[in-house]
Design a protein that fits this description.
- This protein is of the alpha/beta class.
- Helix content is about 45%, strand content about 15%.
- The strands form 2 sheets. Strands 1-2-3-6 form a 4-stranded parallel β-sheet.
- Helix 5 links the parallel strand 2 and strand 3.
- Helix 3 runs parallel beside helix 5.
- The radius of gyration is 17 Å and the shape is globular.
């Protein structure tokens, strides 16, 4: 299923992201199911199956693969496990903010780099676009709440990766 996408990514110098362990509360209904043959959770099997693709798409300059994986902030334990299975894959991390993932949980799968933790992107769209205290009918109120939510996210995530 991924072959056409990985072939295009390779030929065009682009990347792809694959869902592994999403941040929504119901993700465990399927992604945490233990498979009879291996005894591993489905999300682990998916991550493990991507190891060859991740290695094939690993960049020479950065060492990071252009095949990334989605691993939610609301499940920091699985982030660590996926990092073990895919050491060179970039993480796209939804679930920070409104879904309940903390800044520290959001970067649990990141690795030490020269300037702090690296290895992924944290998404925080809902907490910023629909900030607490914003009045949808008042543009100035919404803009102020937006700016405060954005500054809070930048501050919290900045502190989390600086460790």
């Amino acid at each position: 299923t991924l072959a056409p996408f990985t072939a295009f990514a390779r030929s065009a110098g682009r990347g792809i992201f694959v869902l592994v362990k999403t941040s929504n509360p119901g993700s465990g209904d399927f992604q945490d199911q233990v498979l009879a043959g291996s005894g591993a959770a489905l999300y682990e099997e998916v991550a493990d199956s991507l190891a060859e693709v991740a290695e094939d798409l690993r960049g020479v300059k950065t060492g990071w693969s252009s095949m990334g994986v989605v691993v939610g902030a609301t499940y920091p334990g699985p982030q660590e496990r996926v990092r073990e299975l895919l050491p060179d894959a970039l993480f796209l991390v939804p679930g920070y903010g409104s879904q309940g993932g903390s800044a520290a949980d959001s970067v649990r799968g990141f690795v030490p780099g020269p300037k702090g933790l690296e290895g992924g992107l944290v998404n925080t769209s809902r907490a910023v676009l629909y900030p607490d205290g914003a009045d949808a009918g008042d543009a100035r109120s919404w803009e102020t709440a937006f700016d405060e939510a954005l500054a809070r996210a930048i501050g919290e995530l900045g502190e989390a990766v600086a460790r």
